[in-house]
Amino acid sequence: MIRMSRVIISAINLTKYFPVQRGFLERLISRKLEYIRAVDGVDLEIKEEETFALVGETGCGKTTTGRLLVRLLEPTGGDIFFRGIRITHIKGEELRKLRRHLQIIFQDPYASLNPRMKIGDAIGHPLEIHDIAKGREKRQIVLEMLEKVGLTPAERYYELYPHQLSGGERQRVVISRAMILKPDFIVADEPISMIDVSLRAKILELMVDLKKEFHVTYLFITHDLATAKYISDRIAVMYLGKIVELATTDELFSNPLHPYVKALISAIPRPGPKAERERLLLRGEIPSPINPPSGCRLHPRCPFKIRICSKEEPKLLEKERGHYVACHLY
Amino acid sequence: MKCLLNINELKVYYFTRRGVVRAVDGVSLNISRGEVLGLVGESGSGKSTLGISLLGLVPPPGRVVGGSIIFDGIELTKLSADEFAKIRGRRISMIFQDPMTSLNPLMKIGDHLMETIMIHENIPKNEARERSIKALEEVGIPPERFNDYPHQFSGGMRQRVMIALAILLNPDLIIADEPTTALDVIVQAQIIDLLNNLRKQYNMSILLISHDIGVVSEIADKIAVMYAGHLVEMADVDVIFKDPLHPYTSALLRAVPLIESKYEKLYYIPGSPPDLVNPPKGCRFHPRCPHATDICRTREPRTVSIEDHIVKCWMYCDTYE
Amino acid sequence: YWYYQVYIKPKEVIVLGTIDKITVLDPAKAYDFFTWEVLNNIGEGLLKYKPGTTELVPGLAESYEVREGGRVYIFKLRKGLKFTDGTPLDAEVVKWSIERQMHLKLDPSWLVTAFVEKVEVIDKYTVAFHLKRPIAYFPALVATVPYFPVSPKAYPWDEAKDSTVGIGPYKVVKWVRDVELRLEVNPDYYGPKPKTKYFIIKFYKDATALKMALEAGEIDIAWRELLPTDIVALKKEGKFNVVEAPSPYIRYIVLRCNQPPFDDVRLRRAIAAAIDRNRICEKVFKGLVTPLYSMVPMGMWSHIDAFKDEYGERNLELARELLREAGFSEDNKFKVELWYTPTHYGTTEADVAALIKESLEETGMIKVELKSAEWATYAAEYIAKGVMPIFLLGWYPDYIDPDNYLTPFLHSEHCGHLGVFYSNSDVDELLEEAMIKPTREERQALYEEVQRILARDAPLIPIFQGRLFLVCKRNIKGVVLDPIMLLRYYLIYKD
Amino acid sequence: MLKAYLIKRALMTIPTMLILLTIIFLIMRVLPGDPVAAIVGTKAPPEVIQSVTRRLGLDQPYHIQYINYLSDLLRGDLGRSMIWGRRPVIDEIMDHFPATLELSISAFMVSILIGIITGTEAARKFRSKFDQVLRFYGILTYSLFIPWFGIMLQLIFSVYLKLLPVGGRIDPFMEPEKITGLYLLDSILTLNIPSFFNALSHLVLPSITLGVYISGVFTRTVRSNMLEVLRKDYITAARARGIPENVVVYRHALKNAFIPILTMMGLQFALLLAGAVLTETTFSWPGMGTFLLERIMYRDYTTVQGTVVFIALLIVSISLLVDIMYAYLDPRIRFR
Amino acid sequence: MKRTPLSRTIIPPLRKIRRLNLSEYWIAISGAVIIIVVSLMAILAPLIAPYDPIETVGDSLEPPNTRFLLGTDNIGRDILSRIIYGSRISLSIAFLASIISMIIGASLGLLSGYIGGTFDTTLALIMDSMYAFPSIILAIAIAYVLGPGILNVTISIGIVYIPVYFRMIRSEVLSTKESLYVEAARAIGASDRVILLKYILPNVTASLPVVFSLNATDAILIEAALSFLGLGLPAPTPDWGFDLKNGYHFITAGYWWPVTFPGLMIIITALGFSLLSEGLSEILNPRLREV
Ligand SMILES: Nc1ncnc2c1ncn2[C@@H]1O[C@H](COP(=O)(O)OP(=O)(O)OP(=O)(O)O)[C@@H](O)[C@H]1O
Ligand SMILES: Nc1ncnc2c1ncn2[C@@H]1O[C@H](COP(=O)(O)OP(=O)(O)OP(=O)(O)O)[C@@H](O)[C@H]1O
Ligand SMILES: [Mg+2]
Ligand SMILES: [Mg+2]
């Protein structure tokens, strides 16, 4: 049964081009600018209280999409709506207020904490910035939060510095910092990929628990399909700045449509007895996002390509109910 | 199958300022000719240290402090630097984790290969060149890229070059330390397939090191599991998956999200990996083990082998005192 | 040197080391001792001193006569002389050279303009100087560098310029400023040829480098000048010849007498009384220089120890008394800045300043702050503008006459250039009178009077009189050190 | 690709140069003292002062002076000395520049030789006694007071042992025929053996003084860069291929370590020049350093300005050269 | 391409250094000891100096003896006393100059790096140009402009070192600015001022001590060089460079002590600072420390 729910955040034709870094003189010499098309026309809708996974290989634009959605990056084109309000270009005080509702957790727990700030202060800082609590009150809230994420005794952890913590503990700190404002929407950008295997499950579980408690919506970014499958309600697969397929988790795994998604699924190493498996393997590697292939971006690597693939870009269309795919084969 | 490599009670320690890191602490294992052994374990469990010690390249302040490594009848730990250099690259070669940094950025791809051949074999330049080109073709790199520099290659291509370098002199043993960790899934699958093919073709032994039990299971015949410098379990792939004995192994298998498993709750191992300067007394896994008993906390378990299945856990030692 | 010259016989070369500098090889601009010395070796005046004496003998002029009671001097030039650039020397050239001096009005030009009214060509080889008033010592002036004829081809009319064109016994064959000046015998010189074919001057940064070069055998002669300690040591050691001669070089302090605080004559006198000349001579110069009690150096006619007569060698009591009169005391110290220039007078200068400070402060009522400025600033800016209340200076004579030690300092018309703002019409009159008096006796009385006034008013305080030292290898001969102090390179040879 | 890079890099020097020139211009304007007084002396009448001021263009407003200054430079005119002989500044510079160049090159070679060998060996024997000694050497030489060190060498080798000359560049009459102005090179080119040895003997002490001073920095740079490179994966990978240790260190590692060292060297050029000023004064070496110092003391306005401009030009060209070498050495730039 | 996580290069707070192990940190410790001894000399100068440094108290050029432990100089001043008082000058110039350049250089670097854009480009170009210029020549020029005197020498040395701090801080700011924790701060809604002061500033100052003491080394040497070249302090201020220069003149006459002791003091003090700098950089640089 699909619960009817409201859309919390949506993007329409979202694009982000990064100019290729050039020196100040180079800019004077030649006018031609090259762009990295990190995100190139992404449409998506994320519903209230769901966990939406964004999957794809390195450099396909997942992180950029996440950052765009929480307005850490200025989009080049397209629109972003938060609860139906257009937030594409808001600035200043308005944006700062918005930040209470949109949060992000970064991949690298080692780099996302200020090494010169105590854990407690780091977590409590958002409260101060948004004038929610100060001093003792703040400390109380932070301590509660620390308990919740399992950093006990909280009093001790409050006084520690990030380097005194392990990766898993740091990621919990980062999560508490994001949660302390009780936001509505959190982008979790590969929150477990830099954590020891044995500790990943714990972080995932924590995230799931917190979600229940705070009623947040996650955009869960990962390159690992298995993790996405474990945690998410719906999945979107990206390739070179575009979403190629979007469906509910079960649907995607049971009935992948796009050749890229099929390849991705079949490439996952499967633990267990070495059974001879049929693999759908793509040739080569992802091309540069500076000059992506014309037409369908997968066509140079696609075993099923037809003539139109190199000429026309396929649109993301609803193939079955809730199952979108961008491929000329369908 | 004939035993190619025999490691016995190997101890490799790092003498750091913080104290002695017992990275490999009494590990014994065998690899037969043509066999692929997968070595898994969490980060910091000593896998790489074990691998690199087979080449005599443990970086200072690390040292092999005990045990023996017998490779094809040669005691490696006793070799002089010169003698060891003759074995490296020729009889034992290595593939590293990060293909982006494992090639000298100032040298052409071809020169890497030619240099290796010409150091080990006294052959004319053009012959070395031909053989290098052949090795590159073997891993799927066209000859016209012979004179390119590493930065002109993508990650997967570089890892192919590394593999070409490893198989170049047709060694008996290849140590592959996380050869696919830095690569994307699809490229990873390509490399795994390549390794699988080459291995069949050349009948080489491979020591495949990885923290990803899934990757290992794709190639390996046998799997060895390391925890905090100890080898805790070793058995055939199928056996490990079907019937893991050590609590750590089974915990590890249940902690990773698997694509097949449906919505079941993930299991996590409580606590965190030990600090190897001050490892826990007794069984090193005991603080995190659900089955830990008193003896686990005080005495290190013996290694027992049940048929071909080796395990280091008190639960399987028939006789405690 | 151990692998010495391969091309040239050692005897043909003499290397002289110095820490002096050539400023500009132009008689119209050069106004420093060393450049004059070089110009005297590569050029020549109409008259010149006979080496070792103060007697003037014909130079480029073969004879001269005095007319109109000393107002007109007529010189007969030698015939057939030419400059090293080929320009022949004649009366027109002499006229041009002097008029150029008068036109450019650079530093040394006053030696011409103060005396000469005009120059007249009488015939090709006869030239007449019309003076503003009769000058008894004009022949001595004519022997000075500003009166040297120069080649109009080599020097521009309206600008000073370096030129190596000369007419003297040596000609310049190579010159790299502050590195080396290489002289070679001038084949066209009318007089006897120098005995040494090449005379090389090497320039050193400081006296220590000079001493090292001497020790290492790089130079044959060290001239101007080794440090007193080194000279004392060398004299004792006896490895080198140390040639010494009294010198009319004097050092003195100037007090800014037209502005507070030194417009108060009591303060000037207090300073004059407090200075300890002996300490400076002994401590800094190891007794190689002599305390001086007048601006006119010892050994020159008309010298009297005026300051000694006025204050004694040193009179701290008098100094204190004067200070007290001027309103100062131990608690209310007279504070003053003492200026010196750290390199121009050699490295000893800082020590001289330090000892002056010390001896003044011994009164217990003076507090001295030492200040220093590099020579360029010191000379061009501070001195003439009266920036510094007390400062150290030195004087080398332009010509050998007491007038040159008194008029430039005390005549109100001239003294401002030297930072002395003294104005006393009696002194002016005395000096002017002395200038034209024909006999030495008459002049001497006047100069003695001036010296006494000087000691009383103390706008300047003499400190010491120098000695010349030249250190050379034992085989160097022909060194003549005489009152004009300029070394004649052309007399020097190797044995 | 490479050519485009080089052109771009060359164009990059323009703003740097312009900024340097502007700074120099500004500094020269605030120097105390009146350049006109330096030329005409203290007794000159006002009309002479005026005419000289006009001739020097000092009566113009500053921005005009600035434009004139730049346009003169563009024409390669560094002006004429303001005092004394009014020689063209460029001639004066050319009298002294070869001396500095010769000293710098030989000191540089001394320091590179010492630096590379000691640095590499120290890195190889990281944390050993040997390493500690070499590190101390690096620190000590950095703290060396050049004049003191130079004086000690002079005393020992020249004054007491009389082995080498105290100072100067060459003995009189020993100068080789002028081709490049570098005595050693010229005497080789003209096959003038005595001159060669004479010049060499003069060069030994100054270049050792300066070379040792710089070498410490090199030892440290080479050491730390080698440490870094020796830890790189491709070094381990090379070892794992059985490449002999010396080849690994001196071929693979040194070449890679050399690229950052090269950049460092470009920057160290300033240190070299700074050291050269002190070395030159200590050894009466007739180079740019002594020359510049003297002229600063004499307030020879235009000469100082011209010389500083020349040094600035030199520095900019050196850094350009370094970058070109960098590009040549590093295929990542060469084949972009 | 994956960027390397920044945390690996971030310098840990000093407190992480556990025990100060003498043998490991001998470089830093010996540097610190030298500096402390010289500083004590400076502070206690009036108490420990046997004579007034600018008074002639003995004969000139007395060799070291029981009355004058290090002998006297050419006008009979006690060299030991001059050296002791000289440490005041040297150290205060070194410290003051370094502080001047640190304050100006670091704050300019911080702003320039954070603001970026044309402002940054221009400032960076200017600073780079200054940096590439031989420090001593620059210092000579400035010292000449300002004239001799303690303050002037301090200022000229101070100005010369501004680019060193500027470059260091700016490059740290540039990389810190890109770091995840700064982005995280932005994500929680922190303002630029808060980010600059609470997130960037504390993280870019770690190498300041290293640069500071290296700077002090250079300041000592440049001060001595300026005095040596006659651009430093006026006589009779007790100053090592000045005394060295002065003593240098008597060396050829066989008087070794006036040149040796001031020279040694310059080198020892400079050595103290550079040892400290090297030692600190080792302690603060985790990459070298790790092993
Ligand atoms: N700030 C930036 N400036 C320039 N290029 C950028 C920037 N951020 C990302 N890119 C580029 O945009 C593309 C997409 O990057 P993004 O980080 O979104 O990928 P990703 O899917 O998150 O990859 P990964 O799995 O490696 O995290 C890449 O080619 C990347 O190099
Ligand atoms: N050069 C070294 N110096 C000091 N300690 C080291 C060094 N290399 C490794 N270690 C320590 O030795 C232990 C084992 O390290 P090793 O690299 O062998 O682990 P690993 O199993 O390969 O881990 P990973 O999965 O992260 O590669 C770790 O605790 C590590 O900190
Ligand atoms: Mg990402
Ligand atoms: Mg490893």
Key structural traits:
heteropentamer, A: alpha/beta, Rossmann fold, 8-stranded mixed beta sheet, 4-stranded antiparallel beta sheet, D: mainly alpha, MetI-like fold, binds magnesium ion
What does this structure look like?
The complex is a heteropentamer of chains A (330), B (321), C (495), D (336) and E (291). Chain A has helices at residues 24-29, 62-69, 92-98, 119-129, 135-148, 154-158, 167-179, 197-214, 225-231, 249-254, 259-267; strands at 7-19, 35-47, 51-55, 77-82, 85-86, 102-105, 185-189, 217-222, 234-239, 242-248, 317-320, 323-325. With 330 residues, chain A is an alpha/beta fold. In chain A, a hairpin with a 2-residue loop joins strand 4 (77-82) and strand 5 (85-86). The longest helix of chain A is centred in the middle third of the chain and has 18 residues, at 197-214. Chain A is globular and about 70 Å long. With 321 residues, chain B is an alpha/beta fold. Helices cover 31% and strands 24% of the residues of chain B. Chain B contains ten helices and twelve strands. In chain B, the strands form two sheets. An eight-stranded mixed sheet of chain B has the order 6-7-8-3-9-10-12-11, sandwiched between helices. A four-stranded antiparallel sheet of chain B has the order 2-1-4-5, covered by helices on one side. In chain B, strand 11 and strand 12 (309-311) form a beta hairpin. The radius of gyration of chain B is 20 Å and the shape is globular. In chain B, 53% of the residues are buried. Chain D is mostly helical. Chain D folds into two domains: 2-74, no CATH class; 94-335, MetI-like (MetI-like fold), CATH 1.10.3720. Chain E is mainly alpha-helical and 291 residues long. Chain E has one domain: MetI-like fold (Orthogonal Bundle), CATH 1.10.3720.10. Chain E contains twelve helices and no strands. Chain E starts with 25 loop residues before the first helix and ends with a helix. The relative contact order of chain E is 0.16. Bound molecules: adenosine-5'-triphosphate (2 copies) and magnesium ion (2 copies). One magnesium ion is lined by residues 62-63, 189 of chain A.
Secondary structure elements and their pairing?
The complex is a heteropentamer of chains A (330), B (321), C (495), D (336) and E (291).
Chain A: E1 7-19, H1 24-29, E2 35-47, E3 51-55, H2 62-69, E4 77-82, E5 85-86, H3 92-98, E6 102-105, H4 119-129, H5 135-148, H6 154-158, H7 167-179, E7 185-189, H8 197-214, E8 217-222, H9 225-231, E9 234-239, E10 242-248, H10 249-254, H11 259-267, E11 317-320, E12 323-325
Parallel strand pairs in A: 3-8, 3-9, 6-7, 7-8
Antiparallel strand pairs in A: 1-2, 1-4, 4-5, 9-10, 10-12, 11-12
Chain B: E1 3-15, E2 20-32, E3 36-41, H1 47-53, E4 62-71, E5 74-75, H2 81-87, E6 92-95, H3 109-120, H4 125-138, H5 155-167, E7 173-177, H6 185-202, E8 205-210, H7 213-219, E9 222-227, E10 230-236, H8 237-242, H9 247-255, H10 294-298, E11 304-306, E12 309-311
Parallel strand pairs in B: 3-8, 3-9, 6-7, 7-8
Antiparallel strand pairs in B: 1-2, 1-4, 4-5, 9-10, 10-12, 11-12
Helix pairs in contact in B: 3-4, 4-5, 5-6
Chain D: H1 2-30, H2 35-40, H3 46-55, H4 62-74, H5 89-124, H6 129-142, H7 146-160, H8 183-189, H9 193-230, H10 233-240, H11 245-282, H12 288-298, H13 301-329, H14 331-334
Helix pairs in contact in D: 1-13, 5-6, 5-9, 5-11, 5-13, 6-9, 7-9, 7-11, 8-9, 9-11, 11-12, 11-13, 12-13
The complex binds adenosine-5'-triphosphate (2 copies) and magnesium ion (2 copies).
The site of one adenosine-5'-triphosphate has 13 residues of chain A, from strand 2 and helix 2.
